[in-house]
């Protein structure tokens, strides 16, 4: 387990709240999974900025990943390897947080996510 608790910045929480309203997805962890995968697909390293975990939005790693938490950990480690980064727990945890925050920002900033269908179309379009 790379991290015990996932805690987001207030900005990320506010962005997720807007996404919840637009998509109808009620669970924070589901939107966070979408955001993480969207960011990992970028194939670039997020800017290494300090993340202030100043919101009250917190979930366990097991809540974040659900039945597939091990797959999310493997995806992050694989991403680190592909980016030429170490895979020690501190590095993997750091880039998990950076990718999560970046992904939330990207999904909220796209302007075209207005429904759950837009999320699905994003995933399908990226595969083509």
From TrEMBL:
User: According to the lineage, what is the superkingdom?
Assistant: Bacteria
* Pfam families membership: DndE
Show the InterPro entries listed in the entry: DNA_S_DndE, DndE_sf
Identification of the protein by name? DNA sulfur modification protein DndE
Source organism per UniProt: Hornefia butyriciproducens
